[in-house]
Automatic annotation (TrEMBL):
InterPro entries: IolE/XylAMocC-like, Xyl_isomerase-like_sf, Xyl_isomerase-like_TIM-brl
Pfam families membership: AP_endonuc_2
Domain of life: Bacteria
Organism of derivation: Streptomyces albiflavescens
Upper taxonomic lineage: Bacteria, Bacillati, Actinomycetota, Actinomycetes, Kitasatosporales
Protein's recorded name: Xylose isomerase-like TIM barrel domain-containing protein
All residue ranges annotated as the Xylose isomerase-like TIM barrel domain in the record: 53-316
Amino acid sequence: MTSSSPQSSPQSSPSPRPSPSSSLSRIRIGSAPDSWGVWFPDDRRQVPWQRFLDEVSASGYEWIELGPYGYLPTDPAVLKEETARRGLTVSAGTVFTGLHRGPAVWESTWAHVSDIAALTQAMGAEHLVVIPAFWRDDKTGEVLEDSTLTPTQWRNLTAQTERLAHEVRERYGLRVVVHPHADTHIDSEENVTRFLDATDSSLVSLCLDTGHYAYCGGDSVKLIETYGERIGYLHLKQVDPLILAEVRAGEVPFGPAVARGVMCEPPSGVPALEPVLAAAQQLGVDLFAIVEQDMYPCPPDKPLPIAQRTRAFLRSCGA
């Protein structure tokens, strides 16, 4: 997808459910290290990167994300060789930022972002997925800061995100897509729409993660139909509604919630992915839709059969 692709107007009517024979011709399906239980550059509970590449290719995917920087080789020549011989192409890189903390964190943020953006560009990708800082630790659940931003922090978040998007575009030719995420300050419908309304649409787009948005109470189809011109990228994910209810009732942090299985294998959870994909197709632009099933930590033999079944399910949807 190119950043200059025209967007159609958001649809006001409900999106039709695609038949198995329909073709979601504008949707490019891929997967990511996340679906293999990979959250960190180096962790003994994660599968080796070679196994991830072997298995994601064997599952029938052609597109992948870089995942946490340093998990896959950071030498572009090495990574190009390893992905090419498996028939894989990189769709995006991912960065974590704390831009609500203001200009004081710009230099450290840019040092982190520039390395990842350079590798993303070298791999021929056009998107950089930006995930806001967690207000509580994703591994331990420790509360790190207030879950609600002050007005000043909101201004910092929007202004610094626009700055980042401008610099990434000018220096690396990449499009920033901001990822609403559980246990961050861009999570619920209220906070997502507030963020979108306060940022420049020519600079900042959204990576809509269907699982995280449902986790935080949002409706992905409604968001696509209302803010279609801002949807620049998709992550396909589902949540188990019963586990989610327990997580919400117990105020369980995101990391432990994942360990409980709150993110589940499609099509057993919510939201239904068929109407999400249909709504995205109706935008009339090319979109990546990258499967992410948070499973950290998980047994090493668990991801492959899930990935194969998920790819088959998405094919049955026309993708």
